[in-house]
Write a structure and sequence with these properties.
The chain is an alpha/beta fold. The chain has helices spanning about 20-30, 60-70, 95-100, 115-125, 140-155, 170-185, 210-215, 240-245, 250-255, 275-280, 285-305, and strands at about 50-55, 75-80, 105-110, 130-135, 160-165, 185-190, 205-210, 220-225, 260-265. It folds into 2 domains: about 20-140 and about 295-305, Aspartate/ornithine carbamoyltransferase (Rossmann fold), CATH 3.40.50.1370; about 140-290, Rossmann fold (3-Layer(aba) Sandwich), CATH 3.40.50. A 5-stranded parallel beta sheet has the order 7-6-5-8-9. A 4-stranded parallel beta sheet has the order 2-1-3-4, sandwiched between helices. Helix 1 (about 20-30) packs across helix 5, helix 5 (about 140-155) packs across helix 6 (about 170-185) and helix 5 crosses helix 11. It is globular.
């Protein structure tokens, strides 16, 4: 696979991207990595472009990462929170987005608790839409930074064995990763309580198990997912104590994994639930590397979707 000329106007999810389009984003992100290591962490690549960050859900890593990515590309940023916008007065999200676009915004980064909102907005406005997480549907930039980190630590993704453990049912991160990683030839296993495994998910080309030992056997990477209580309308397992005993990755569990296995997590971590403290902070963990890589990946997405005709400029901004 190779980099191609980017033609997409939006990034709504990885389901509809081709393998070559995903590789193009990852390869472009690699070009941006060293910018964060400079004394002056800024380039003029998107000077004159305006990006609106429109977040309807709490966010630390994703929102901060997008804001930093925009600043490092010299784009102008607008930041809106759903709770402090006119939406609380009854304005529709369609009207809110069209009013924002009337401010001559070039791209809108949106996170929403309802699945499909970014897709709806892409029909309402001319600005490029970047999905920063919609309900339980997708979180494409998180999956892209996960894949970028896997390539950085393990090389080619083809044939790589990656296991996702935890609340698969409510995880938009898992869905985006499944779409992306399978297209690049990775071997995916998902593991969790039966009640937290989506129906017919095996049709997506993944292996399903409810046994933690089966999930870690031979895995090159373990991606732990927290229990998303805020998205659950019912109880899916008896207790946190039982979940911890059955599905927590701790030092004893790691003894049965490959010696070079890496531990990943999209955050926030429910410490000592899905992941023991000493593992989260241990030598196998690449969780903070994921956070760092998120900046380069989001810089790549902003650059590609900006539609800029100029040659990619990595010279320092004045």
């Amino acid at each position: 696979m190779k980099k191609i000329r980017w033609k997409q106007k939006h990034l709504l999810g990885l389901k509809d991207l081709t393998a070559n389009e995903i590789v193009t984003i990852l390869d472009t992100a690699k070009s941006f990595v060293e910018i964060s290591e400079r004394a002056i962490k800024k380039v003029p690549t998107l000077r004159g472009k305006t990006v609106c960050n429109f977040f309807f859900e709490p966010s630390t890593r994703t929102r901060a990462s997008f804001e930093i990515a925009e600043k490092r590309l010299s784009a102008d940023s607008l930041n809106f929170a759903g709770s402090s916008s006119s939406l609380v007065k009854g304005e529709s999200i369609k009207d809110a987005a069209r009013n924002i676009e009337a401010l001559k915004v070039d791209m809108i980064v949106i996170r929403h608790s309802s699945s499909g909102v970014p897709h709806q907005l892409s029909h309402y406005v001319n600005a490029g839409i970047i999905n920063a997480g919609d309900g339980i549907n997708e979180h494409p930039t998180q999956a892209l930074l996960d894949m970028f980190t896997l390539r950085e630590k393990k090389g080619d993704l083809k044939g790589l064995k990656v296991s996702f453990i935890g609340d698969i049912l409510h995880s938009r991160v898992a869905r985006s990763n499944i779409w992306g990683l399978t297209k690049l030839g990775a071997d995916i296993t998902i593991c969790g309580p039966r009640t937290l495994i989506p129906r017919d998910v095996d049709k997506l080309g993944v292996r399903v198990t409810n046994n933690l030992m089966e999930a870690i056997e031979g895995a090159d990477a373990l991606n732990l997912l927290r229990i998303q209580f805020e998205r659950q309308s019912e109880i899916f397992f008896p207790s946190i104590r039982e979940y911890r005993q059955t599905f927590q990755v701790n030092k004893d569990v790691l003894k049965k994994a490959k010696k070079d296995v890496i531990i990943m997590h999209p955050g926030p971590i429910n410490r000592d639930v899905e992941l023991a403290n000493d593992v989260a902070d241990g030598k196998h963990s690449v969780i903070l590397d994921q956070v760092t890589n998120g900046i380069a990946v989001r810089m790549a997405v902003l650059y590609l979707l900006s539609g800029t005709k100029q040659q990619l400029s990595l010279e320092e901004s004045e």
